[in-house]
Amino acid sequence: MGLEEKIPDSIILTSLDKMVNWAHKRSMWPLGFGLACCAIEMISTFGPHFDVARYGMEVMRPSPRQADLMIVAGRVSVKMAPVVKTLYEQMPNPKWVISMGACASCGGVFNNYALIQGVDRIIPVDIFIPGCPPRPEQLMNGIMTLFEKVEKESVKDDRPEWGRKLA
Amino acid sequence: MSNTAKTVTLNMGPQHPSTHGVLRVILELDGETVVKAEPVLGYLHTGIEKTMESKLYYKALPCTDRMDYLAPMSNNLGFSLAVEKLMEIDIPEKVQWVRVCLAELTRINSHLVWLGTHALDLGAMSMLLYAFRDRESIVEMYEACGGQRMMTTYIRIGGLAQDIPKDFEKGIRNIIKVINNGLNDYETLLTNNEIFINRTKGVGVLTAEEAISLSLSGPMLRGSGVKHDLRKANPYTGYENFDFEVPVGQNGDAYDRYTIRVEEIRQSLKIMQQAIDGMPEGPYRAHVPGIVLPPKEDVLYKMESMIFHFKLITEGFKTPVGSVYQGIESGKGEIGFFISGDGTNKPHRVRVRTPSFINLAALPKMCEGNMFSDVVCAIGSIDIVLGEVDR
Amino acid sequence: MEDKLREFFNNNFKDAVIKEDKFRGDVSYYIKPESLFAICEALLADSSLDVKFLSDITSLDWLNHEEEKNGRFEVVYNLYSISNRYRFFLKVRLDGENPNVKSLVDLWDGADWMEREVFDMMGIIFEGHPNLTKILTADELDGHPLRKDFTLTWEQPKFTWNLDDPPEVIK
Q: Using CA atoms, how far apart are residues C40 and C88, in angstroms rounded to an integer?
């Protein structure tokens, strides 16, 4: 944020962390970006039955420039991989990635020439959700787990960005 | 594609909220008029056909769910019917009736998602919420049958994965009620909605000759006035026993396709009602040892069944040399499975004639010469699923 | 309809038909590739047969199979008559070295994408096709995936990674 260099490592920083993390957590805007089958379950999650708006994330942004969270919902093909990478790079910091479903996480049942065997080979992933496709509850659990992760972050930490070694 | 002084090239997709997935269209615009539209596919190419060649017939079946993920049961049905045709298996009557019931349920599922997303593209946001509200009851039925909300793999070669759940009849009757009520909501929202009519009437017009020349099928073909439905023309899995109408359009525009799909939901409800009223009793799987898996109850208590089960799962069954084609009418059109057996236990070639892929070829013809804002409407009215287009 | 079709082939294209085959109720005619276009043109013109609907074009690879002696590749044209409710297949055998057959784009608009897909996945050249380019597979991919000598799991094309150490090649 630019602010953290000026603040010493003290109680002020912890309070600032708390506030920033709370803000991040409570208004996380996902990128409206569906690839395959899991996208339908993602729409269900955002739909009337499961209603993820309860957690402050009903606004799906069609443009990556306005989004904080990328849910990779579906299989990533070799042809799509550069596009996914570009979309990730277009998102402003801080940004998080959820890999939803077996295909996005590890290639799933399709171990073949056409698919990337896990989206973590091209972009850093925070949360993996298993399932083919995962139930909406599972996606919500994944989002909650991501919130827990966000709570532990500090403004001093750098998010793993492109060009760094992935954790 | 080069820019002249007059035209502008615009890229739409692959990440675009109204291309229903990862479709990319390169548009050449003259002002607001589309001069040329060129769809670019392959962003979801999964190699499913090649993957299925490496699997036993039973294990190739789950791949079919993942093509048209809005209508998984139609795909299961198509593949199972094709393999049953190749192996000459007779199916018990009860299985046929359950299959008809589930195929129609799947058609409603597919049409509901289409209705929601198509209306969303044209600005009617609440339609999506209504459609997904009612779709949830169908997905719950899937879960009761196959244990999964979307990828059920419930219809298997030679029958069903397991017997129908105890409250199947009650569940289907409930769905008929829910969708019937829902249909009134949708029609109130859209059918006479002036904005919707203005956005869809006269958009993406295709004549009957063009539709046949482009090999279109399903509501795309019927919207142009060609009365062709495989359920009536070449009945499969006992559709000849059911009484239903095939709605046909006149103008071949997006509004006609909308009315046809809504009417198809009504007809599907009618078929489901007949199927549930006349559901016969019987086994849920054909008794063909060595080809069809024995029922799970027998596997646990009978030696021979267990041996057959083990052999089928590990080795599969051998097919004769020859190729069969079985087309069925899914929600999007004719989905056909061309299976070529080569005498081994794996398919030599599985070709899927997917309706989305072939219907999408009509997009340039529907867009060129029309307004730029109608492109979204044209894409929506084709009803594509990219998993099926790219496979 | 079946007899009418046989009559049609006997009257007009007796030399072009190699074999008539019926398997599980599916009627297919193995024809010589050079006469494919003429047959399709005549089928379209015949009003009593009314074969106006090209349902599908697909292809098979018979590499290392006893069928290979008749030609490695097989292109299958799936034709349907809407008014007669009748489906039949035209099959063309092509050799493995130089598989090419005349394109049907002039007869059916729908053949455009189907032929492009067959070209992309199986590598069969359709002569006279206006835009025979890749349609499904990635541009980086060499070869035609559905050929039997193409391995299912294959080394994937590399991207321009921005990493210090490139990841191991996906096998």
A: 12
Interchain proximity A85–C159, CB inside 8 Å: yes
Question: B126 vs A10, which has greater pLDDT?
Answer: B126
Q: Note the pLDDT of residue C84.
A: 87
Buried-state track B199-227, b at ≥16 Cβ within 10 A, e below 16:
bbeebbbbeeebbbbbbbbbbbbbbbbbe
Judged against a pLDDT cut of 90, whether residue B369 lies above it is answered with no
* Chain C residues close to B210, C-beta within 8 Å: 109
Cis ω for the linkage preceding B283 (within 30 of 0): no
**Domain range list for chain B:** 48-390
| Close Cβ partners of B176 (under 8 Å, ≥ 6 residues apart) | B269, B272, B273
Decide if C53 is inside a domain: yes
pLDDT in tens, C3-51: 888 888 888 888 888 888 888 888 989 999 888 889 888 888 888 888 8
Domain with residue C14: its CATH number is 3.30.460.80
The answer to whether residue C11 is domain-embedded is yes
C149 CB neighbour count, 10 Å cutoff:
10
What digits encode the pLDDT tens for the residues B73-99? 999 999 999 999 998 898 999 999 999
**Residue range B28-84, pLDDT digits in tens:** 888 888 888 888 888 888 888 888 888 888 888 988 888 888 888 999 999 999 999
- Residue A165 pLDDT grade (very low, low, confident, very high; cuts 50, 70, 90): very low
Side by side, which strands form the sheet with C26-31?
C17-23, C26-31, C86-94, C73-81, C53-61
Of the residues B326, B351, B360, B382, the best mutation for testing chain C's interface (the one with the most C CB atoms within 10 Å of its CB) is B351
CB pair distance less than 8 Å for C60 and B391:
no
Q: Which domain holds residue C97?
A: 2-127
Which of C22, C29, C38 lies closest to C7, judged by CA? C29
State the Cα–Cα distance between residues B133 and A44, nearest whole angstrom.
9
C3: Cα separation from own chain's centroid: 25
| C136 Cα to chain B: minimum distance (Å) | 4
B182 has a pLDDT exceeding 60: yes
Structural domains of chain A in order of their starting residue, each with its CATH number: 30-151 (3.40.50.12280)
| Residue A164 pLDDT > 50 | no
Number of domains in chain C: 1
The alpha-carbon gap from A47 to the nearest alpha carbon of chain B, in Å, equals: 6
The four Cα atoms B204, B208, B214, B219 give a dihedral, to 10 degrees, of 70
Residues of A with Cβ-Cβ distance to C169 under 8 angstroms: none
How close, in Å, is residue C151 to chain A by CA atoms?
Answer: 8
Nearest-Cα residue of chain A relative to residue C154: A113
- Check B133 against A113: CB less than 8 A apart: no
Q: What is the pLDDT of residues C111-160, one digit of tens each?
A: 889 999 999 888 899 988 898 888 888 888 888 888 888 877 754 444 44
Select the residue of B85, B215, B322 nearest C108 (Cβ to Cβ): B215
For the stretch B332-346, pLDDT in tens is 889 999 999 888 888
What CATH class is the domain B48-390? Answer: mainly alpha
This prediction's pTM: 0.90
φ, ψ (nearest 5 deg) of residue A88: -65, -40
Contact present, C28 and C21 (Cβ < 8 Å): yes
Distance CA A137, CA B314 (A): 34
Q: Is C66 on the interface with A (CB under 8 A)?
A: no
